[in-house]
Amino acid sequence: MELTFPVVDFSKLNGEERATAMEMINDACENWGFFELVNHGISHELLDTVERLTKEHYKKCMEQRFKEMVASKGLEAVQSEINDMDWESTFFLRHLPESNVSEIPDLELDYRKVMKEFAVELEKLAEQLLDLLCENLGLEPGYLKKVFYGSKGPNFGTKVSNYPPCPKPDLIKGLRAHTDAGGIILLFQDDKVSGLQLLKGEQWIDVPPMKHSVVVNLGDQLEVITNGKYKSVMHRVIAQTDGNRMSIASFYNPGSDAVIYPAPALVEKEADKSEVYPKFVFEDYMKLYAGLKFQAKEPRFEAMKTVDSTVNLGPIATV
C-alpha cells in the first residue's frame, strides 16, 4: 500500500475544516512523528530570500572548505561504508536564550538580518504548534511552552546545512539515522533536491520536497512528555550524486534546566500506569545524547531512569 506523507494546510485551522486539520496533525504525531505544513503564514518572499542568501553563503564561504575536507580524508575514493561521519557542510545559529547570530564569522550583514527575522517567525510558529498539540492531547493551553520554559526560557537554534553532490551515496550518508533529542523541529528544505527520509515501521519513506513548505518533526522530549503517545522518529539524509540539498532546521527545545516528565494528565488516563517515561533535567539528557545520537532512543530513556533519583527537582518555574 502506498503511504501518503501527511501534508497539513495550516490556513484550514481558521475555518470550518479545523477539526479535520487537527485530526491530521494528531494522526501525524501519533503515527509518523513528522508532517509538512503549507500556508503556514511565513511569507514566501522571506523564505525565498533565506534560500537565496543561504545558497550564496555556501558557495562563497563553505563550498571550498568542504571540498578540502573531502580531499584531505580521501572520501571520493572510499571503497567501504563509512559510519563515523556525515557528508554535510553545516553551521549553527543560536537565537534563544541569547542570539549569537552577530558573532558568527563570514556572514554578510543582510544574511544575519534575514536569519534573525526568520527566527522570529519560526519561534511564533513553533509556539502555535505546541498549543495545537496541547489541544489535541487535552492538555491546558500553554502547558508545553511552560514545561519547556525552565528558568530562562527555551533553547532555540538553527542548523544550516548543505548536502553537496556525493560520488558514493551508498557508502556515506548525508546524515546518519537518528531521532532528534529536543522538542519540536521546523525544517525549511530544498524544494528540488530530495534526500530526507523517515523510518515508518521497517520502511524508509521520502519526505517530499515542496516549495515554501515547513516540515515539522517531534523530538524525544515530546515523546517523554506525552508518555509515548506521540513519537520521535528515526530519520536520515541520503546524499545525492547530483544536486546540492539545502536544509535549514530550527530546534525549539526546552531550556537547559527545564524538568521534563510525562504530563500527569496523560498518565492518569492510561490503564497501565507501570509504563511511565522518566523524569529528568533537559541538560542531563543532552549530555547523554551527545555520545549516543546515532543509536536507538530507548536505551537513552532507560538510562535517564537511573539518573532520576539524583535529580534535585525543586519547584518548577511557572511563567
TrEMBL record:
Domain of life from the UniProt record: Eukaryota
UniProt xrefs under InterPro entries: DIOX_N, IPNS-like_FE2OG_OXY, IPNS-like_sf, Oxoglu/Fe-dep_dioxygenase_dom, Plant_2OG-oxidoreductases
Biological process per Gene Ontology, one example term: cellular response to fatty acid
Enzyme class: oxidoreductase
Domain named Fe2OG dioxygenase: residues: 154-254
Keywords: Ethylene biosynthesis, Iron, Metal-binding, Oxidoreductase, Vitamin C
Family annotation (Gene3D superfamilies): B-lactam Antibiotic, Isopenicillin N Synthase, Chain
Gene Ontology molecular functions: 1-aminocyclopropane-1-carboxylate oxidase activity; L-ascorbic acid binding; metal ion binding
Annotated metabolic or biological route of this protein: Alkene biosynthesis; ethylene biosynthesis via S-adenosyl-L-methionine; ethylene from S-adenosyl-L-methionine: step 2/2
A Pfam family reported for this protein in Swiss-Prot or TrEMBL: 2OG-FeII_Oxy
EC number of the protein: 1.14.17.4
Transmembrane stretches, start-end: none
Family: Belongs to the iron/ascorbate-dependent oxidoreductase family.
Protein name: aminocyclopropanecarboxylate oxidase
